[in-house]
């Protein structure tokens, strides 16, 4: 899954000379936490966050009158408060790598730049959530099976063969190797709803051959209709 396929291609940007007051309004109007700072050619120069603006704003206990306050806020520029130490990613890198970078750096999003350093998009935690929802097929409901499989070649193929024999429609297959070096791996398979009598026969055979960790049924999401 490439970042370029999931990022927002219309990031909200400001220039270094944008006033802090205008930057604050842009954050509120767009309901976002971070603005990308670019030059007139679109090259990424830095980022400014709602936290940066709060820290640079006068205290509520200030003795300035409203006119002085507005003047001060209009004089402070984005270039005075932005961060130039930026964690970025490129469109042809993986969404998984983006998720790791966000987690490691405790940030909610990443500017996406091309090889020339030009800003081409932004990918956020919400985009990563959308990827998870998409690849699991959970919006379509169905049955999720969690199986503990020996970490040996061909074991997953045996499970798939049983599912095919019972005409189960596979929606997604995910695996997890945790903890590292464990002799087994967890496999999560989502199948479409099927006739309950056929489903019972399928589960009976799977339980006879494998360790089933859990079985979970999800309803189709209302957004998809009936």
Would you mind describing this structure in some detail?
With 226 residues, this protein is α+β, with helices and mostly antiparallel strands. The protein has nine helices and nine strands. The two termini are 29 Å apart.
Number of strands: 9
Quaternary structure of the protein: single chain
Give me the number of helical elements: 9
Poorly predicted runs:
none
Average the pLDDT over all residues and give the rounded result. Answer: 91
- Sum up the overall morphology in one term: elongated
Give me the Rg, rounded: 25 Å
User: Strand order within the widest sheet?
Assistant: 7-8-6-9
Question: How much helix, percentage-wise, in residues?
Answer: 25-40%
Span of the ends, CA to CA: 29 Å
Q: What is the string of helix and strand elements? A: HEHEEHHHHEEHEHEEHE
State the major sheet: 4 strands, antiparallel
Structural class: alpha+beta
β-sheet strand percentage: 15-25%
